Amino acid sequence: MKETNHPPVFDFGRFKLRPYVKEDEQSVVNMFREPTAHEAMRKEIMTIQQAKNLFAKTQGIYSSDKSKRWFWIWGIEVDGKNQGHFELKETDNTKENELELVYMLMPEVRRQGILTKILERFKREQVVWDKKVIATVNRHNTVSIQLLDLKWGIESREKIFEEDEDDFYWKFVLTS
Fold first, then answer.
1. 3-state per-residue secondary structure call for 36-74
2. What mean pLDDT, rounded, does the chain reach?
C-alpha cells in the first residue's frame, strides 16, 4: 500500500518513470504547452505561467507524505531526457477502489512502445495495489482509445459529459 505521494522509480532500461526534480521545470513547461497533446485532449494550450504553476504543484504533492489521496506523478525520462508525463491518482472520476492514469509523450518519442511497456507493468501492479485502473479519454482521441483497448483491455466504459456541453469523454475501467 502507498505511504507517500513520492512515487517509486520504475526503470525500463532505455526509459524510466521517475519523480520530477526542479531541473525538469523547463522541459515540463514545454511538454504542457505541446500543441498535439492539447489537440488530443481538446483543451486549450496552457500559458507559460499556467504550466509553471502546474509543475510547482507537483513539488507540493511530493511533499505531502501519508496523504489520504493517492497521487503519484512521474516524468518519463527517455535516453536521459524528460520526454513525457505520467500520473496515477485518485480523482473525482474514481471510486474508492480505483486509480486514474494520465499520460502524455512528446511527439518525438511516440510510437516507440514506451506507453505499452508502462501499461503492461501497471496492469500487473494494480493487483498488488488492490485497485482497478481507469482512464478518462476524450472521445476524439482515437489513438489513446486504441492503445488502451489493445494493450490493456477495456472492461467497461461510461460517458461523462462536460458541464454545460453536449460533448463527452469516456471513462474506461481497464481489465485486471
1. HHHHHHCCCCCCHHHHHHHHHHHHHHHCCCCCCCCEEEE
2. 85
Q: Residue 89 forms beta bridges with which residues?
A: 71, 100
Contact 73, 20 (CB under 8 A): yes
The closest alpha carbon to 89, from 79, 76, 77, 98, belongs to 98
* Sign of the CA dihedral with 17 first, then 89, 103, and 43 last: negative
- One-letter amino acid at 124 equals R
Give the number of domains in the chain: 1
What is the domain range of residue 96? Answer: 10-174
Contacts of residue 46, defined as CB under 8 A and 6 or more positions apart, other chains included, come to 32, 33, 38, 54
CA distances from 174 to 21, 31, 69, 145, 150 (A): 30, 26, 21, 11, 11
Using CA atoms, how far apart are residues 172 and 159, in angstroms rounded to an integer?
9
The pTM score is 0.85
Question: In this structure, what C-alpha cell is assigned to residue 36?
Answer: 498535439
Please report, for the domain that includes residue 65, its CATH number.
3.40.630.30
Alpha helix positions (H), 77-141? 114-129
**48, part of any domain:** yes
Please write the tens of the pLDDT for every residue from 90-146.
888 889 889 999 888 899 998 999 988 998 898 888 888 888 999 988 888 888 888
